[in-house]
Amino acid sequence: MQIGILGGGRVGVSLARRWTAAGHDVTISTRDTIAETAADKDVVLLAVPAAAVGEVLAAAGALEGTVVIDATNNLSGGPDGAAIAAMASRAHVVKAFNTVGNTFISGPIQVLNYSYFDKEFPETFRTAMQIRESIEKHGWKKVVAFQTRNPMHRAHEELVRMAMDREKADGAVIHMLLGKLKPGDIPADVRDAAIRKMVELYFPPNTVEITGYGFDMLYAGPREAVLHAVFRQNMGATHLIVGRDHAGVGSYYGPFDAHHIFDEIPEDSLETRPLKIDWTFWCYKCGGMASARTCPHDDADRLLVSGTKLRKWLSEGAEVPAEFSRPEVLAILREYYEGLAAHERVEVKLSGHSAR
Ligand SMILES: [Zn+2]
């Protein structure tokens, strides 16, 4: 493709490098070569200060039918995107690479409300400051946080236990996402009840806090893992458990992308440390819960339950192995599941990260 770049600044030069590497024929203008750089091109990139756009477009000619990519911003004055599109009315103007507005707001933040979260989940919803206070009240110094959007089966329970053990943590905060999920995921109140029951029966008293926060899943994989770590830093957790394919969807991200990203961000940019743990499962040969890091056996020796299979078992009232999920947790899920109309049941997913 023939590409003419108007403006030899950082944006113009960076894009010229990339486009040349991608095999395009790229020309960058100087002050004196605007007309010839813009002439007979498939695409013209506008990468000059906005204040200079009028002058540069006048020198560039009509640009009849040319695709013009407007990468300018008018932070220090000049026309905005709409005005530039009007100025180059015979071209096809596309705004890209720079869509920042020229208005920024700053000042103290006042929270007007917590949306529906504090009303619908009064026992579970906590602000970051409230969680900090309760961590302080417990006297916990090392705190691992577990992000979850699912009921906790034994694999999830094991992740928390493993993380607490590994870090010799004083406590754990199970931090549930109370916002929107994928259609068919288990609703927050059922998940909440199942998690509370599991903690009550299988963790020592006063070692686990069950809380939730108002946020929707973004399924942004590794980037969301970093965002999740920032949330946990704000609420005072020293560690965040990052399992396999954290905040992933389908097989869109690599299984360990959310682990690697913590090695790519600048060191010390986060106080909360990631606890990178591979998936966990029951292994018959190991004779207990194991992780992919420590168990040498293969899938045939491991208890692997797909979401579909679990759904089938629950809807048919069949036994689910106690090695997969605690019976008390299953009872809560079963009750929810039996209350659903037949057509809704098909939609429900009970997947955990151990459910493959
Ligand atoms: Zn094993």
What is the CATH top level name of the largest domain?
Alpha Beta
**Which residues form runs of ≥5 with pLDDT under 50?**
350-356
Give the distance, in angstroms, between the N- and C-terminal Cα atoms: 45 Å
Helix proportion? 25-40%
- Could you tell me the CATH topology label of the largest domain: Rossmann fold
Number of strands: 13
Structural class: alpha/beta
Shape: elongated
CATH architecture classification name of the largest domain: 3-Layer(aba) Sandwich
The helix-strand sequence is: EHEHEHEHEHHEHEHEHEHEEEEHHH
Spell out the CATH superfamily of the largest domain.
Answer: HUPs
Ligand identities: zinc ion
Radius of gyration: 27 Å
Mean pLDDT across all amino acids: 90
Number of helices: 13
Structure in words:
The chain is an alpha/beta fold and 356 residues long. It has three domains: 2-95, Rossmann fold (3-Layer(aba) Sandwich), CATH 3.40.50.720; 122-274, Rossmann fold; 282-345, no CATH class. The protein has helices spanning 10-21, 34-38, 53-60, 81-87, 117-120, 128-138, 154-167, 188-202, 221-234, 257-264, 307-315, 327-339, 342-345; strands at 2-6, 25-28, 43-46, 67-70, 92-95, 143-148, 171-177, 208-213, 239-242, 273-276, 280-283, 288-291, 302-303. The strands form three sheets. The chain has a five-stranded parallel sheet, sandwiched between helices. Helix 8 (188-202) runs antiparallel to helix 12 (327-339) and helix 9 crosses helix 10 (257-264). Mean pLDDT is 90; it is low at 350-356. Zinc ion binds at residues 283, 285-286, 290, 295, 297, 301.
